[in-house]
């Protein structure tokens, strides 16, 4: 187990370097960011040259990358064009996005799995068909439509919530945005769980469990559900990374100042330091989440062992 | 100049706004924060400033909003007429339009208790001009003697930290020596870059940046970078334009559509950038609580005069023909819902006729006339390569829509579907890069946001030979000469006349095609009154009444 974890951690290194290099190059390809700092006017050449020097943009790309990586390992993610440290941006943005992700994941787990179990056990019944139709609709409607619609109905027409989230972004305020963010994944979780449950219901160990007279509740939670959760856990695990990085649309609609907001702004302003910094952290989150998923397999299914 | 693309500095608001109070029915309570009377606090939409919040480093509207509230300079531009009136300046004297003696009023204070003295100004200007401080507005000090030493061009070594043209001669007086005659120099001093700075700015710079201290009617109570700034009325403010409300909460919005939705839901009091998509229904949503007034912004099409194909004799006919092939009325009505006005000169209506705005100066050259346009383009030898490509940045604004409309208009005139096409460029920075490196092969979008309401500012930086924003590298001896004469002229009316003559030269050569004047637009909740936008498209916050 320990060796397996170490091996996986070592594998992360090349992935990490490759991902950051790619992002670094992509942001660089967009051209000189200094030209965009002076509005429709040409930056005066002396100041522009000075700024390029300060941000290290006058050096060749490979050298910029090496310097950047060197700094990253000492915890220095650079400075954004507005003079703020990228680490400072991260310390304000990540807590917000993490809260949003937690809300979204909770929705996925609680509603998604419950619905999945209910429909999986009642295949072909009206409940099942109804849930299938609803998930189909949710999957096919883009997030920004769901988001804007809920914002308009709940925020403006009925006045149940505030259309935008305040600076503090408390859990209470994040319920609706979290639901919007989770909606598509939630539908997938429902369908995955349903299929998995329906399949395993016919398996031998469930029949045995029922035959030896275990209570229905125990059969479902201990035997059926636990074995059916593997694909679902995989999905939710990878979804953590996707939700954190992919919240740009939701964050824009509800004016949440999280990771998506900083990334969007960083890209518009061609701020290499911000973009690479945030993406690097997202890559790490993704890698760690995947590792945790793999380790969870062993917990869920005793047959899986890591040597 | 300050990114008219990034942020819409919008408008000389004004009279219209005064009549627009609370006409909208709606039983909503309006901004949640308003408590009424002079103590009421309003909330307003904001964007994260692009640069650190220093006066000489802020060149876009979002940072400009804050500076406008916490700073007062020697002069201040009237929110209605755009005229430069003395603020802190007692008097500014000159006998030769080159050496100025400035006397400031005594008794002004910064909100940390420091006195505003002549030194506060000289120190601030020296800081702004010095190359090592990376101030993006440094060029504003370019007229002051010694600028070339404190801010050497292209790779030169900086040999002075201060401007030799500035000298403190007393607690309340200082002198300015310019490197050329510039009669309207005092009128430029209302720009934020010329604000005074307290000692605290230099002593503890990072502390100042995290909570700027100024001498304006508001002081900053708290500032959370990237999300919110709370400004409160400063009771001990020395000026006469005291805040009429208790304060302003600036809230950062990522998307102006969300800000607009918040306004409709009564969660926000003032939106100073109504999203283009909402322009169609803003009247039914807000009734009279919507203002749409001219701002000091003009949009033009510039030409690459470094490209021989566009510069050869006879091409002025093609350029004029192109101008006449554009149906400005139709485009401003349908695409911009009248938030732009067809341009008929190269300045802006906010200057007023005394300031140099002359409606119709462009004459026939800016009037839509398909037959005449076709004739001119054919006579001039047609577009180089048989096709004209209009370049624009596709990331902000609704540039694609209007460029396509302009091309459509040109194509209809010429009866050729391929005569004009748009050439989108991904990001604003890349667009600016290609322009600075003289890589344009055809006309390109050019926007100009004035720094100060002077006709000089609409002409010299843009069309004078090798001027800082002469992106098309247009050059004309006669034009340069007229501008020089105008700058040396002490009589304002005569100077304006000379500038307008220069504009005539620009028209005859069609150095750039004027498209439209841009308006500023804002919407507000029913709890506010006396809302107006300045010629710089900033809401005049200190005049707004809550409740």
Task: Please explain how this structure is put together.
The complex is a heterodimer of chains A (307) and B (547). Chain A has 307 residues and is mainly α. Chain A folds into two domains: 2-73, no CATH class; 87-300, MetI-like fold. Helices cover 74% and strands 0% of the residues of chain A. The radius of gyration of chain A is 24 Å and the shape is flat. In chain B, 29% of the residues lie in helices and 19% in strands. Chain B has helices spanning 15-18, 61-70, 118-129, 147-150, 185-188, 199-203, 205-210, 256-264, 282-286, 308-311, 315-324, 328-334, 352-355, 370-379, 399-414, 428-436, 455-463, 477-488, 492-509, and strands spanning 41-46, 75-77, 84-86, 89-94, 99-104, 166-170, 173-177, 218-224, 228-233, 247-252, 270-271, 290-302, 340-342, 388-393, 420-425, 444-449, 512-524, 528-529, 545-546. In chain B, the strands form six sheets. In chain B, strands 11, 12, 13, 16 and 17 form a five-stranded antiparallel beta sheet that branches. Residues 1-36 of chain B have low confidence and may be disordered.
How is this structure best summarized?
Chain A is mostly helical and 307 residues long. Chain A is built from twelve helices and no strands. Chain A has two domains: 2-73, no CATH class; 87-300, Orthogonal Bundle (MetI-like fold), CATH 1.10.3720.
Biggest sheet statistics of chain B:
5 strands, antiparallel
* Total count of helical runs of at least 4 residues of chain A: 12
Structural class assignment of chain B:
alpha+beta
Q: CATH homologous superfamily of the largest domain in chain A - what is it?
A: MetI-like
The sequence of SSEs of chain A as H and E is: HHHHHHHHHHHH
How many beta strands in the DSSP annotation of chain B? 19
Radius of gyration of chain B: 23 Å
**Which spans of chain A have pLDDT < 50 for at least 5 consecutive residues?**
none
Instruction: Estimate what percentage of residues of chain B fall within beta strands.
Output: 15-25%
Question: What average pLDDT do the residues of chain B reach?
Answer: 86
CATH architecture annotation of the largest domain in chain A: Orthogonal Bundle
Distance between the termini of chain A: 5 Å
Query: Residue share in helices of chain B?
Result: 25-40%
User: How would a textbook summarize the main sheet of chain A?
Assistant: none
Number of domain units of chain A: 2
What proportion of the residues of chain A is helical, as a percent range?
over 70%
């Amino acid at each position: 187990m320990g060796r397996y974890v170490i091996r996986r951690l070592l594998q992360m290194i090349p992935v990490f370097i490759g991902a950051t290099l790619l992002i670094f190059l992509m942001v660089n390809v967009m051209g000189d960011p200094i030209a965009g700092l002076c509005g429709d006017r040409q930056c005066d050449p002396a100041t522009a040259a000075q700024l390029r020097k300060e941000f290290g943009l006058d050096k060749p790309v490979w050298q910029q990358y090496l310097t950047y990586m060197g700094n990253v390992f000492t915890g220095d993610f650079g400075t954004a064009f507005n003079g703020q440290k990228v680490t400072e941006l991260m310390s304000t943005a990540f807590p917000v996005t993490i809260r949003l992700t937690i809300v979204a994941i909770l929705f996925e787990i609680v509603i998604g799995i419950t619905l999945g179990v209910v429909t999986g056990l009642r295949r072909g019944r009206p409940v099942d068909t109804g849930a299938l139709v609803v998930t189909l609709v949710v999957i096919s409607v883009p997030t920004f439509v769901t988001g804007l619609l809920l914002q308009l109905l709940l925020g403006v027409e009925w006045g149940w919530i505030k259309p935008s989230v305040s600076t503090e972004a408390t859990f209470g305020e994040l319920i609706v945005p979290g639901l919007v963010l989770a909606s598509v994944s939630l539908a997938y979780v429902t369908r995955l769980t349903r299929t998995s449950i329906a399949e395993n219901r016919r398996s031998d160990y469930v029949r045995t469990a029922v035959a030896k007279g275990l209570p229905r509740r125990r059969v479902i939670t201990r035997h059926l559900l636990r074995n059916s959760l593997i694909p679902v856990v995989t999905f939710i695990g990878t979804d953590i990374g996707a939700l954190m990085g992919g919240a740009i649309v939701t964050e824009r609609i509800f004016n949440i100042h999280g990771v998506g907001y900083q990334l969007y702004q960083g890209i518009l302003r061609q701020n290499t330091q911000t973009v690479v910094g945030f993406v690097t952290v997202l890559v790490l989150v993704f890698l760690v989440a995947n590792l945790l998923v793999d380790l969870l397999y062993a917990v869920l299914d005793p047959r899986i062992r890591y040597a | 100049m300050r990114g008219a693309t990034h942020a819409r500095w919008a408008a000389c608001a004004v009279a219209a706004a005064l009549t627009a109070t609370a006409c909208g029915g709606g039983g909503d309570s309006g901004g949640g924060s308003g408590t009424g009377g002079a103590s009421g606090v309003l909330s307003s939409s904001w964007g994260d400033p692009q640069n650190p919040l220093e006066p000489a480093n802020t060149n876009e509207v979002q940072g400009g909003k804050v500076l406008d509230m916490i700073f007062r300079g020697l002069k201040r531009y009237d929110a209605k007429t755009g005229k430069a009136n003395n603020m802190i300046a007692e008097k500014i004297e000159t006998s030769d339009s080159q050496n100025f003696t400035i006397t400031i009023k005594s008794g002004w204070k910064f909100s940390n208790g420091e006195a505003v003295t002549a030194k506060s100004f000289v120190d601030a200007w020296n800081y702004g001009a010095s190359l090592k401080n990376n101030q993006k507005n440094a060029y504003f000090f370019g007229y002051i003697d010694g600028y070339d030493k404190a801010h050497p061009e292209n790779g030169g070594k900086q040999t002075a930290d201060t401007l030799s043209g500035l000298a403190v001669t007393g607690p309340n007086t200082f002198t300015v020596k310019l490197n050329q005659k510039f009669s309207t120099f005092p009128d430029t001093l209302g720009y934020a870059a010329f604000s005074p700075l307290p000692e605290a700015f230099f002593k503890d710079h990072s502390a100042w940046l995290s909570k700027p201290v100024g001498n304006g009617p508001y002081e900053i109570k708290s500032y959370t970078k990237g999300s919110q700034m709370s400004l409160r009325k400063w009771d001990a403010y020395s000026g006469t334009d005291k805040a009429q409300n208790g304060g302003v909460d600036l809230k950062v919005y990522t998307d102006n559509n969300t800000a607009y939705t918040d306004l409709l839901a009564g969660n926000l009091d003032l939106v100073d950038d109504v999203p283009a998509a909402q322009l169609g229904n803003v009247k039914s949503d807000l009734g009279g609580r919507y203002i749409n007034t001219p701002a000091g912004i003009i949009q033009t099409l510039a030409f690459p005069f470094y490209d021989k194909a566009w510069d050869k004799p006879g091409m002025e006919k093609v350029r004029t023909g192109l101008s006449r092939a554009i149906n400005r009325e139709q485009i401003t009505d349908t695409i911009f819902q009248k938030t732009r006005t067809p341009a008929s000169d190269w300045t802006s209506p906010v200057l007023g006729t005394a300031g140099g705005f002359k409606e119709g100066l462009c004459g026939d050259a800016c009037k839509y006339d398909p037959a005449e346009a076709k004739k001119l383009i054919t006579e001039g030898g047609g577009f180089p390569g048989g096709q004209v490509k209009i370049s624009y940045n596709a990331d902000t604004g609704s540039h694609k829509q209007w460029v396509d409309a302009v091309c459509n208009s040109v194509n209809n005139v010429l009866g050729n579907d391929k005569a004009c096409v748009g050439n989108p460029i991904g990001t604003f920075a890349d667009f600016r890069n290609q322009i600075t490196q003289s890589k344009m092969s055809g006309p390109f979008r050019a926007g100009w946001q004035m720094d100060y309401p002077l006709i000089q500012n609409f002409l010299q930086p843009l069309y004078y030979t090798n001027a800082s924003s002469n992106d098309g590298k247009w050059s004309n001896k006669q034009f340069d000469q007229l501008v020089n004469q105008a700058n040396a002229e002490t009589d304002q009316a005569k100077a304006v006349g000379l500038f307008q003559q220069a504009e005539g030269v620009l028209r005859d050569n069609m150095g750039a095609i004027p498209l439209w004047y841009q308006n500023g637009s804002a919407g507000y909740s029913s709890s506010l009154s006396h809302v107006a936008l300045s010629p710089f498209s900033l809401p005049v916050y200190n005049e707004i009444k809550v409740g």
